[in-house]
Structures are given as C-alpha cells and as structure tokens.
Specification:
This protein is an all-alpha fold. The chain is built from 9 helices and no strands. The N terminus is likely disordered.
Length: 131
C-alpha cells in the first residue's frame, strides 16, 4: 500500500495510527494479523488488508513523505525551494492531522485543486505559487 492510497473518509485510520505508534514492540502490532473478532472488525470497517494496517500502524505521526507530492501537485519544484523554506514546510507537514485526506486527494489527482481546504501549508504554497 502506498501512502497515496490511504482513504480520507475513515478517521479511524488516524486513531489506529496513534494507537499502534504508542505500542513499542512489533509483536503488539502483529495483532492486526491475528484472527479473532477485534482485528477482523477493524479490517472490515476500514476495508483494508492486514498488510495495509501494518503499514499504517508503523507510520510515524510526524512523517512528511507526502510533502514532495503535494508540492508537485501544486506546481512547485521542491528542488528549487530554499532549504529554510523546505524545512518550514516540513515542520508544518509533520504536525498535520490531515495526512489521510492528503493521501486520498493525491491519489485521486485532486490535490492541486483542493489542498487549500485541508493543507496547513496552503498559505505558504499559495505564496510560493504567487497566487
């Protein structure tokens, strides 16, 4: 599962990610692979495979791997940005609570038009675009 395929319509993804990130041992994350009612209920609700849920559970809440894709979708070349600007964008991205929504918008090819509605970097991106 790629980051850009995380659906935005299930806020439980964020809750699951926070819960699993708090579980230090990998063994505790493996409960998603087990049979039983609770793991099956989670998988059915999210409509995802155990591998998808393991990937999600392993995400660091502060990851910024969607940022380059968002910049590209907004028409910006990340390599042309000043290092301080990239760092500021990454700091804001790391605290974002809309990563699932961002991933879905990127996957659907809508992010370039819709980022202003959910991206905390939207004002900076718009300024960089000269809009």
């Amino acid at each position: 599962m790629t980051t850009s395929s995380i659906p935005a319509r299930w806020p439980l993804f964020d809750i699951l990610s926070q819960w699993a990130s708090a579980c230090a041992p990998q063994g505790e994350r493996n409960f998603l692979d087990q049979g039983g009612e609770e793991p099956q209920r989670i998988r059915a609700h999210l409509r995802r495979t155990p591998a998808d849920l393991r990937w999600l559970a392993g995400r660091d809440p502060g990851h910024t791997e969607l940022l380059p894709h968002m910049l590209w979708a907004a028409g910006l070349d990340e390599s042309r940005l000043a290092p301080a600007t990239r760092d500021a964008l990454a700091r804001t991205c790391s605290r974002c609570r809309s990563k699932a929504h961002c991933g879905e918008e990127l996957a659907q090819g809508r992010a370039g038009d819709s980022y202003a509605a959910f991206c905390p970097n939207a004002p900076a991106i718009q300024a960089l675009r000269g809009a």
